[in-house]
Write a structure and sequence with these properties.
This protein is mainly α. It is built from 7 helices and no strands.
Length: about 230
């Protein structure tokens, strides 16, 4: 027989919850280090990230008695993460930093690591910084003639503000840590938003097919009377 209250909860096993929780941890740390504590943006970014996590969890728990509430809260989570994505994009744009494309070598390595904790993200940042240092040293030794004195060799000029930095197999040594973190967070936000869109579509289809709690209550009572 159909149960009156179906199985629900289990949000900790949802991929969307796991990614949103990592985004929240990254955002709290990012804002602590790189956003002025007097700025309203700092609180708004943290609250948007928290809203994404909390509403996914609340939607999962509410699904036992209200598919409508589940759908609504999941959509709130999706909207909160979209707000956060705009904040990270604003940070990069307003600081004349580059928003990396999906095929950027650093992002490819980040995606391949499938980070699930803040410590794993820190390890990726450390690896990228080491690659950048090694890359810069290699190109310095290659670009200058052997007879040139190190103190007289001219350094390559920086690109004009707002223009993309040429990308080699590792990030340019001039890319600061906040840019690494912001682009990693945006990559996670893109993935989480895509999965949430699919989750919302599945919830909407289930709601259309099965109805809400009232319809289930009528079915359960009717089936009970028929069996009696």
């Amino acid at each position: 027989m159909e149960p009156l209250i179906p199985r629900h909860g289990g949000y900790r096993h949802l991929k969307t919850f796991q990614i949103a929780q990592l985004i929240y941890d990254i955002t709290v740390r990012f804002c602590h280090l790189f956003i002025d504590k007097r700025s309203r943006t700092r609180d708004q970014m943290v609250q948007a990230a928290r809203s994404g996590v909390q509403n996914i969890a609340e939607a999962s728990m509410a699904s036992g008695t209200s598919r409508k509430t589940e759908l609504k809260l999941t959509n709130v989570a999706r909207a909160s993460l979209e707000e956060l994505r705009l904040d990270y994009e604003d940070f990069l744009r307003q600081n004349s930093c580059t928003l990396w494309p999906a095929d950027h070598p650093s992002l490819k390595r980040f995606k391949a690591k499938r980070c699930s904790t803040l410590d794993e993200v820190r390890a990726w940042i450390h690896d990228e910084q080491e690659l950048a240092e090694a890359d810069a040293e290699t190109h310095t030794n290659t670009d200058h003639p052997k007879h040139a004195r190190p103190d007289t060799a001219s350094a390559p000029s920086d690109p004009p503000s707002g223009e993309s930095v040429p990308v080699r197999d590792s990030p340019c040594s001039s890319v600061p840590t906040p840019v690494l973190v912001a682009n990693a967070a945006l990559s996670l936000l893109n993935l989480c938003s895509y999965l949430l869109d699919r989750q919302i579509s599945a919830q909407a289809a289930t709601f259309e097919e099965e109805g809400g709690f009232t319809e289930r209550l009528h079915r359960v009572r009717r089936n009970k009377r028929d069996n009696e």
